[in-house]
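Session log. Operator J.P. requested a structure for one protein chain; no other inputs attached. Running the standard single-chain path with token output.
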Amino acid sequence: MIYEVRTYELKPGSVAQWEGHFEAALPNRVKYSELAALWHTDIGPLNQVIHVWPYENLEHRTEVRAKAAQEPGWPPKGGELLLSMESQIWTPAPFSPALGGNRKLGNIYEMRIYEYQPGSMPKVLAAWEKSLPKRVELSPIAGCMYTDIGGLNLWMHIWPYADLGERDRIRAASMQLADWPPQTREWLVNMQNKIVVPAACSPMA
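Structure written below.
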């Protein structure tokens, strides 16, 4: 299993319009493979939409995208609203839940993306596998994964919350855990996060 995470930067004020075009065209696309999630940013870099597509492997992705490109109405309208596009291929950690599946986990999601030193990802995975079970007793994790194509040495973990107040309470409680956060700071290079909100047509809401 791999995930293609496509991040589009839109013209200011055009997110709702672009999502409307996407929702109208989506039935033509999901004939070939499912959408896991569609989110837009609310805190962090604004005017971004992020769509996540699961595939069995890169060959499956190539096959599906070729078929979808022949479908009338796909890709969606709204190209004039786009400022930039980025695509990355992510591999889920062995202990990660699957993204997608028409699950409602939260009203908001926090995407935390960490860059680590080259060669350190096996140690990062081991530390997370050790520490995560106690953390998810406080709240679930939607998914965690590392990059395979795109910017390398990146680790992303996605957390659903009912609202920002719940996020603050749970993060405060997690700081009281003996082994949280995972002991990976010595390999960290950079950290960023985004608060994203599911679109109306997002399977994962």
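Operator note: Residues 15-29 form the longest helix (15 residues).
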